[in-house]
Write a structure and sequence with these properties.
GO terms for molecular function: ATP binding; kinase activity. The chain is α+β, with helices and mostly antiparallel strands. It has two domains: 118 residues, Probable inorganic polyphosphate/atp-NAD kinase, domain 1 (Rossmann fold, 3-Layer(aba) Sandwich), CATH 3.40.50.10330; 165 residues, Tumour Suppressor Smad4. Helix content is 23%, strand content 34%. The protein contains seven helices and 13 strands. Strand 3, helix 3 and strand 4 form a beta-alpha-beta unit. The longest helix has 12 residues. The protein starts with a strand and ends with a strand.
Length: 302
C-alpha cells in the first residue's frame, strides 16, 4: 500500500483547487492509498514543509496545485537528505500546469494524475540549478528572462481568467516589444563553448517542453537527457511576432530565422542592467545568472 505526503495549495487556480480536494481524497481512499495532506498557507510554505518533514515513512511526495506549488516542492526535495530514496508526483489543480504536460496531463486532470502515481512506475529526471549573485535555487520546467517575464507579470494581474490569461498577456506585451543587450556564454553537449553578444527579445532555458500550459516552447527538450534547451528570440518586428506567436502552440516557432536553439550543459547570462528571472512561473532572481543541469536528480512517478 502506497503512503503519500500530499502538499496541497488551496489558493491554486485562483482558489478553485479547494473544490477538488474532497474528490481527490475520495479517489485516494478508493485506491487504498494512505496519505497525509499538508495545506500551504503562504508563499514558501510548501518548500518549508517538505524540508522539515521526515520523509522516511512515505513512498512519495505529491504536489497538488500549479507550477508554483511544484516549484516549491522541488526546491524542498532538492535540499532534503532523503531525496534519493523517494519519488514525487503531480496532481494538477492550478492555473498553469506546464510540467504536467510531460505526463500527458492538462490542468484539473487530477484523477489522471493520481492514476499515474498509483501505477508506481518511476523514472529519474533532471533538475535545473540557478546561481545568481545573491541566491541559488532549482527549477523543474523552465526559466525565462526578457519578454516572457513581462508577459508573466501581466498574466498574474489577470490570472482569474484561467488558461487564457497567458495568451492575452502575451498579446498585450507585444505592443511594448523591445530587445535588450545580452551577453551569453554556453557550454554545449560536446563541451564546446560559444559566446553570444547582441540584443535579444527573450531567453528561455528549458528542462521540459511546455510553458504557460500550452506553449510548446522547447519541442526538443527531454527531462532526462542531462541537457537544457536554450531558446533565443532575436530582434523581431511586432507584426512578425504576431505571426510567430500562434506557432508556439505547435513548436513550429523554432523554424523562424529570428529564433535560435541550443542544447547545453551550462549557460551564463549577463545584462547591462539586472533583469528579472521567471523560474517555473515564479518571479525570483535576476541577472547575472549561471544555469546548469543536475542530471537524474529526482525520481518522478511517470
Amino acid at each position: 500500500m502506497q503512503n503519500l505526503l500530499v502538499i496541497f495549495n488551496p489558493q491554486a487556480g485562483s482558489g478553485r483547487s479547494k473544490t477538488y480536494l474532497p474528490l481527490i481524497e475520495s479517489y485516494l481512499q478508493g485506491h487504498d492509498i494512505e496519505y497525509q495532506i499538508k495545506h500551504t498557507e503562504r508563499s514558501g510554505h510548501a518548500q518549508a514543509m517538505v524540508e522539515s518533514t521526515d520523509l522516511s515513512p512515505f513512498d512519495g511526495v505529491v504536489a497538488a496545485g500549479g507550477d508554483g506549488t511544484l516549484f516549491e516542492v522541488i526546491n524542498g526535495l532538492m535540499s532534503h537528505k532523503e531525496r534519493q530514496s523517494i519519488s514525487f508526483g503531480v496532481i494538477p489543480v492550478g492555473t498553469g500546469n506546464a510540467f504536467s504536460r510531460e505526463l500527458g496531463l492538462l490542468p484539473t486532470d487530477w484523477k489522471k494524475g493520481i492514476d499515474v502515481i498509483c501505477k508506481q512506475q518511476t523514472k529519474p529526471i533532471d533538475v535545473g540549478y540557478i546561481q545568481t549573485a545573491k541566491e541559488h535555487f532549482y527549477f523543474l520546467n523552465i526559466v525565462g528572462m526578457g519578454f516572457v517575464v513581462d508577459a508573466g507579470k501581466t498574466t498574474l494581474k489577470i490570472k482569474q481568467l484561467g488558461q487564457s490569461a497567458y495568451t492575452l498577456a502575451t498579446l498585450w506585451e507585444t505592443i511594448k516589444l523591445k530587445a535588450h543587450p545580452v551577453k551569453i556564454d554556453l557550454i554545449d553537449e560536446h563541451d564546446q563553448t560559444e559566446s553570444i553578444d547582441e540584443a535579444l527579445v527573450f531567453v528561455e532555458v528549458a528542462n521540459s517542453r511546455y510553458t504557460g500550459t500550452s506553449f510548446l516552447i522547447a519541442p526538443d527538450a527531454k527531462i532526462d537527457d542531462g541537457l537544457l534547451d536554450v531558446i533565443i528570440l532575436k530582434k523581431i518586428s511586432r507584426i512578425k511576432i504576431l505571426s510567430l506567436f500562434p506557432t508556439i502552440y505547435s513548436g513550429k516557432h523554432i523554424n523562424y530565422k529570428e529564433v535560435e536553439c541550443r542544447k547545453v550543459k551550462s549557460i551564463t547570462i549577463r545584462t547591462t542592467n539586472p533583469m528579472a528571472l521567471m523560474p517555473d512561473g515564479e518571479f525570483k532572481g535576476q541577472t547575472p545568472v549561471t544555469i546548469t543541469v543536475v542530471h537524474q536528480a529526482l525520481t518522478l512517478f511517470f
